[in-house]
Amino acid sequence: MNILISVIKLLGGLALLIYGMKILSTNLKKLSGGKLEKVLTSATDNMFKGLLTGILITVATQSSSATTIIVVGLVNSEILKLKNAIPIIMGANIGTTITSQILRLANIDSSSWLSLLTPAVLAPIILLIGIFMLETAKDKKKNNVGEMMIGIGLLFTGMISMIDIASGFSDLPILSEILSKLSNPVLGVLAGAFITMIVQSSSATVGILQALSTTGIVTYATTIPVILGQNIGTCVTSIFASIGGSKNAKRTAAVHLYFNLIGTILFLIVIYAYQYLIGFPFWQNTIDMGQIANFHTIFNVVSTILLFPFINVIEKLTMITIRDKKETDDDDDETDYVSVLNMLDERVANIPNIAIMNSTAVIEKMGEMAEKNFRRSIQLLEDFQVKKLDKIGEREKAINRMEQVVTGFLVGIGSLDLSEQDNITVNALLKIQSEFEKIGDYAYRFSETVEDMHEKNIKISEQAQENFEKICAMTEDSILTAIQAFKEKDLKLVIEIEAIKEFAEVQKENYKNAHIQRLKEKTCNVESGIAFIELLTICEKMIDHCLNVSIATMNYMTNENFVTKQEFFKKIYETQSTLLKDKLNECSHRYAN
Fold this sequence. Notes:
The chain has helices at residues 2-32, 35-42, 47-61, 64-76, 82-95, 97-103, 119-136, 140-166, 173-182, 185-199, 202-212, 220-233, 235-242, 247-277, 289-307, 311-321, 332-335, 338-341, 352-382, 386-414, 420-455, 462-488, 491-521, 526-558, 565-575, 577-591. The chain is mainly alpha-helical. Helix 3 (47-61) crosses helix 4, helix 4 runs parallel beside helix 13 and helix 22 (462-488) runs antiparallel to helix 23. The longest helix is centred in the last third of the chain and has 36 residues, at 420-455. It is elongated. 46% of the residues are buried.
């Protein structure tokens, strides 16, 4: 019963240590205000810079898992390239060893003045400072610092608790028996990997070993395979983080696994070959907290030195094991919207600058898919195929799904503590993605009308066909210009859409009048006339929504909240009347003849 109580207390200390690390890491990220991610994304021009960045970020966050998760998210969002992520992950493995070096302070001789730096002394002081800051904090920054201090205090308190409990295990025969089993390299590696997968922290596993080392019965033979194994077990965090991600996100997690797996195998071969052939004189000697921390550091540093020159090889290995999907149709990549939505990753949802950038990319894709649907719908008039119609339907469903996801993502971003400019941007993006979705709806409605015409064998007259081709050209140009204006934030493109809209409205009335005349002359029947008017109306609506995109896009350039159409027109006619007139003349030459 006493043993059970002691084990429960030991697990309680472990829980405090892990929770303290989590609080520390979370609040350090909050204090960075997205700067950690910016630093990571900037460390792409030099492999050594990437390695150093990985080390420093992990030392700052006290978690290699936090660093690798961020890296997986950035690669998944196509902000960071796979090759540039590899040295960062290597650096993270070195940076994580700082935790065990800090925890070794608990082993300092109490008679030395350095005992003032032990966790037993620092923990209550840091906790008191943290609680005081929380109680007196008047802003978020001081509150985060206070929580960070509490995290450090809990981490130290957990370690102290583990050491106190573990020191009483020295006389337990069962513990000696278990530890002797772990000296088997296979069992030791598996145990280290399994424990790390359970606690989701390599530092916690090393902390457990350091606490148990105070019993005086933990040897080098027991410790080495467990430390090697925990480096494999820690990869499970990045693997979980990559689930549902892009191919490169999965490859990033694979890099983490391959790096630690190759390093572990190399160390196992060298260490156990030497032990078998010659033998280490200290192999069965007891190991202390400092020596455990040192071996943990040596393993990760040496593995990095050995594998750093082979970054290109590791990248190719991941490309071979996680292959790109072969496309069998030029439309397959468009309907596979899952890969596009991977950019709206929850790992970057609380990083405003990256989240907004990713949302913008997804919305651009929505516009491109809507334009492609319209173009494919026009082609159905000349060459109707059920397969092509089905593709249009699939793409429309993808656009609708993207609209749902990006709306939820943007609403989530809007709940963050954003700057005024970011708030304006999020509002504009919400409006623009809705407009692109409506353009997609009308493109699909266009295809349905064409399908109905095909089923009823409705043909439009030659003159109507000429008019129809012109209005379709105006519509497609409007969509393409709206997408370009959204991407480039160019006022001239916004004016161009307004010019196309004005010209299209006049031409539509002309086309209607010509249609009525054809009905009177009986050169056109009623059914074809209804279909013709329906297609004209759809095109007009699509151009209207393109103009709405341009109005919302103006907010990027003017930093204003949404303006009404009346305000938009007033601003255009007051400040850009000459440019508008020139664009109208261009439309006249382009579409009228």
